[in-house]
Write a structure and sequence with these properties.
Elements: E1 5-10, H1 13-21, E2 30-33, E3 44-45, H2 47-50, H3 60-66, E4 71-74, H4 77-92, E5 98-102, E6 105-109, H5 111-117, H6 120-135, E7 141-146, H7 149-156, E8 164-166, H8 172-178, H9 189-196, H10 203-208, H11 211-218, H12 220-229, E9 248-254, H13 262-282, E10 285-295, E11 300-311, H14 314-327, E12 336-346, H15 356-375, H16 386-399, E13 405-408
Parallel strand pairs: 2-4, 7-8
Antiparallel strand pairs: 1-6, 1-7, 2-3, 5-6, 9-12, 9-13, 10-11, 10-12
Helix pairs in contact: 4-6, 5-6, 11-12, 13-14, 13-16
């Protein structure tokens, strides 16, 4: 049986929901914003606003300068979540193999439904019809169909609004030849620039590139990039409600020249440990094995250490990484630094803290996580890391750090 994966992307989602709910907003340029009374940004412009140059993430004052009649509408997260739940319920009537990517995006395996309906296009058209019938004509979506998740998402971006594009198996290579690498989700301008130095400009170039060369340049991410370039999925479809337990959590940083000494890289390493620990706690995991890795342009060194007690505390992870680094012959000019935590267990399965100091630390981390989840990273933090935070910010600006590459699972 042929495999058909569909990617559904709701069009101007927040704005469309508001226009569907309020008929006085229909046909008008509107911009959904979290706090319209403040100087903030446009979270979602309507298509009428987009036609006037208003973009997602644009400051409200700039948007009003482009479109004086723009109506700023306060966002309603509960409303959007409710409509999304109804959309995903509709999708599940076509297939139980549904992976929710965000509040307004999802992948769906429609292979079986396509066999029953005669073609994947018939399935996609019926999905569109049911969404409009149940939720209103202004709730529109674009659907891309392809043999892989990566290509299905690319296809859904090709026609907006209300688009429908099918990349058939025999067309895959032709699409790969003409699509630039940043057409794939996860490849930004900086990564595109680095790939161009390797002679990689299209997705087909990426698929033809030597996997070993990509691995040396990008670490484990190089393996994922090679699969993307061949039109294959680095990560399989993960059905909603059937979450695959992660094998580990980690982050890495790649630096442009001039490269760093280990002493200079320590502040960056702390940030990586902080971000990793935050993700672990948010998903309810702790880990026992800490791995540290540093690489120059020509060589890399790494080692892992097993803790007696699983942890999700950035300070413990950081100090363990420093101890590992002290045992290694770390390159003098560090091009990449990475760390990870593995051999995971659920935090709920761990015994209660034995000592009062441990209990206070755990309570403080939990409270800080709640605040930072609401207001953003480093809204509140231990005062002892203020110098580290300041120096990391300076390094990011002055050394031209590349984007963070997060690997989970």
């Amino acid at each position: 049986m042929a495999r058909y994966l569909a990617h559904l992307d709701m069009n101007a989602y927040f704005a469309s929901v508001e226009q569907q709910a309020n008929r006085f907003l229909r046909g008008k340029p509107i911009g959904v914003s979290r706090k319209p009374q403040d100087r903030t940004i446009i979270a979602a412009p309507s298509y009428e606003a987009k036609a006037r140059g208003v973009k997602t993430g644009m400051p409200t004052w700039e948007a009003l300068g482009l479109c004086p009649e723009l109506e700023i509408v306060p966002g309603d997260p509960a409303k959007y979540a409710y409509i999304s739940s109804r959309i995903f319920s509709i999708l599940k009537t076509f297939s139980p193999l549904l992976e929710v990517f965000s509040i307004d995006e999802a992948w769906l395996d429609i292979s079986q439904a396509a066999q029953e309906c005669g073609s994947p296009l018939a399935v996609a058209r019926e999905i569109k019809r049911k969404i409009k019938q149940e939720l209103g004509p202004l709730i529109r979506c674009s659907i891309g169909i392809a043999p892989s998740k990566v290509l299905a998402k690319i296809a859904s971006e090709m026609q907006k609004p209300d688009g429908l594009v099918w990349i058939q198996e025999h067309e895959v290579q032709a699409y790969l030849e003409r699509l630039e690498v940043d057409a794939a989700c996860g490849i930004d301008e900086r990564l595109k620039a680095r790939l161009s130095l390797l002679g990689v400009r299209t997705l087909a170039d990426l698929g033809r590139c030597d996997p070993g060369r990509l691995r040396r340049a990008f670490g484990i991410v190089g393996h994922y990039l090679h699969l993307i370039g061949r039109g294959r999925d680095p990560v399989p479809l993960n059905p909603h409600g059937q979450e695959i337990p992660p094998k580990g959590f980690g982050h890495s940083r790649v630096f442009q020249s001039p490269y760093l000494t280990m002493e200079q890289a320590k502040d960056v390493l702390y940030l990586l440990c902080y971000r990793t620990a935050r993700r672990m706690r948010s998903k309810g995991y702790a880990g026992r094995v800490i791995h540290f890795y540093a690489a120059s342009h020509s060589r890399g060194v790494g080692r892992q250490r097993t803790l007696s007690i699983p942890t999700a505390d950035e300070e413990v992870i950081y100090q363990t990484c420093l101890a590992i680094a002290g045992e290694l012959s770390v390159p003098e000019a560090i091009r990449m630094v990475a760390m990870s935590v593995s051999r995971l267990c659920r935090q709920a399965a761990l015994p209660l803290p034995l000592f009062p100091a441990w209990k206070r630390r755990e309570g403080a981390l939990s409270a800080m996580d709640e605040i930072n989840d609401e207001w953003g990273d480093f809204s509140i933090y231990f005062g002892s890391i203020q110098p580290v935070k300041d120096r990391v910010s300076w390094k990011i600006a002055s050394l031209g750090m590349h984007r963070e590459l997060a690997i989970e699972g």
